Amino acid sequence: MAFARIAELPQHVGQSVTVRGWVTHLRSSGKVAFIVMRDGTGILQSVVVKSQVTPEVWDLFGTLTQEACIAVTGEVKADARQPGGHELGLANLELFGASPIDYPIQPKEHGIDHLLDNRHFWLRTPRQVAIARIRSEVEQSIHDFFYERDFLRVDTPILTAAIGERSGLFATEYFEEGTAFLAQTGQLYGEAAAAAFGKIYTFGPTFRAEKSKTRRHLTEFWMMEPEVAFADSNDNMQLQEDLLVYVVQRVLERKGAEFKELERDVTKLENVKAPFPRIDYNDAIATLATKGSDTKWGDDLGAEDESLLVADYDRPIFIMNYPKEAKAFYMKENPADPRTVLCNDCLAPEGFGEIIGGSQREDDHDKILHRLREEKLPEAAYDWYLALRKYGTFPHSGFGLGIERTVAWICGTPHIRECIAFPRMMHRLKP
Ligand code: 4AD
Ligand code: MG
Fold first, then answer.
1. Are the beta carbons of 55 and 36 closer than 8 angstroms?
2. Is the CB of residue 21 below 6 angstroms from any atom belonging to ligand 1?
3. Which of 18, 154, 163, 344 is deepest in the core (most CB within 10 A)?
4. Ion ligand 2 — residues with CB < 5 Å
5. Which atom of ligand 1 is nearest to the CA of 355?
């Protein structure tokens, strides 16, 4: 007997196949019954006619419950009225795994805490499947984008000495070496790799022990960080723009069914075309003042400011050249205004906020040492990083794109916790 996944059924019309999966809906008139099941690739309805199956099969149907794992065998018919476009005339039914009736996720509204506590089951529901498929397409399109452009993928360490961004570090004991910290970024290693390989990107989990409980913060999130030798800040924004246009186009082309499931207004994504506006930080502050924000020159922009700024546009925007004190120590001083650095944030439209942070890196040894000291960072942990500025220093730029925030924007989901299979947040380590 041929096994088939539901997505493969178009190739099996008129044939008898076995499909395995989990029950989502059951209904019976006493003489005819219907089983709707899913297998992760689609949904399928089987028709069970009492007079055409054995009494054992009919009785087994009577014991089924939501989420029981079953195998159905029968002839595949094309039927445009059915979800998925097919129906199976059931001849045989087998049960792999019964599912007691107290299955935690019922076809009704559940509160978010209940759903998160049952994330291992919540993942099975159509909306979550659609988000996961879009995430996977986003990730694959990123890999393809960089592969086509001859970037080398470099995997950077997760256990590190005390280096990274400003926000909190997770610590763990590390043999005789003292404390190790979970990486907040792969960037500093990416910079070393860029001098070895020219154009690289990293793709991996990053960790921030921030006590933020917003809809855009996770304690563990995935970040993709390219680093390019001899690229300046303008080249860096160009690369971000090219990447985002490519990714959005690719997901639009391939994930129509998932966008439909999410009821996503894809016309908003169709606007994601080059060029993206490039707005100087000074102008952003002036605009914010006219919109009633009290953010002053020198501050980093908050989520509300970002929403105000992006409201005037239908595509992502760049805010560039922030004041030094608002940004990380490694950003290159702006020769045109040394109070600022050559950097950019990329803000997604529709109020989704910062999805990318990028910059040209400070390549002057003494300047970056000065900034390290100003920020009171542990100099010894950065000795190898400083040495990159001593032996053959080079102009270079890069950025970090947050995968969950990008997926949240593309899917139109307000909270990024749905955009990773098992979210880690301040109060959530399980499941
Ligand atoms: O702006 P960030 O902190 O930049 C860096 O880490 C740089 N080292 C990147 C680089 O230049 N190579 O983070 C980059 C992106 C943010 O724009 C955001 O999308 C995401 O990472 N991000 C988070 N996503 C989820 N939860 C958090 N707590 C995040 N913090 C940052
Ligand atoms: Mg940032």
1. no
2. no
3. 344
4. 357
5. 19
Please give the Cα distance from 399 to 106 (Å, whole number): 42
* Per-residue tokens: 157: 């360490």
Nearest ligand to residue 399 Cα = 1
Tell me which residue has its CA closest to atom 4 in ligand 1: 357
What SS3 class is residue 186?
Answer: coil
Predicted confidence at residue 2, as pLDDT, reads 85
Mean pLDDT computed over every residue of the chain: 96
Residue nearest to atom 11 of ligand 1 (CA): 399
pTM for the predicted model, two decimal places: 0.96
Query: 113 C-alpha to center of ligand 2: Å?
Result: 28
> Which residues fall within 8 angstroms of residue 68, CB to CB, at 6 or more apart?
22, 23, 95, 97, 98, 99
Burial class of residue 252 (count of CB atoms within 10 Å of its CB; 0-12, 13-18, 19+): middle
Q: CA of 292: how far to CAs of 303, 306, 310, 323, 353, in Å?
A: 14, 13, 15, 21, 18
pLDDT tens-digit map of 393-429: 999 999 999 999 999 999 999 999 999 999 999 999 9
Residue 18 Cα to ligand 1 midpoint, Å, equals 46
| d(CA 402, ligand 1 centre) in Å | 6
Q: Establish whether residue 405 lines the binding site of ligand 1, counting it when its CB lies within 6 angstroms of any ligand atom.
A: yes
Is the beta carbon of 202 within 6 A of some atom in ligand 1?
no
Mean pLDDT of 281-305: 96
User: Bigger pLDDT: 72 or 163?
Assistant: 72
Find out whether the peptide bond into 275 is cis, omega within 30 degrees of 0. Answer: yes
Question: How does residue 164 score in pLDDT terms, banded at 50, 70 and 90?
Answer: confident
Ligand 1 atom nearest the C-alpha of 212 is 28
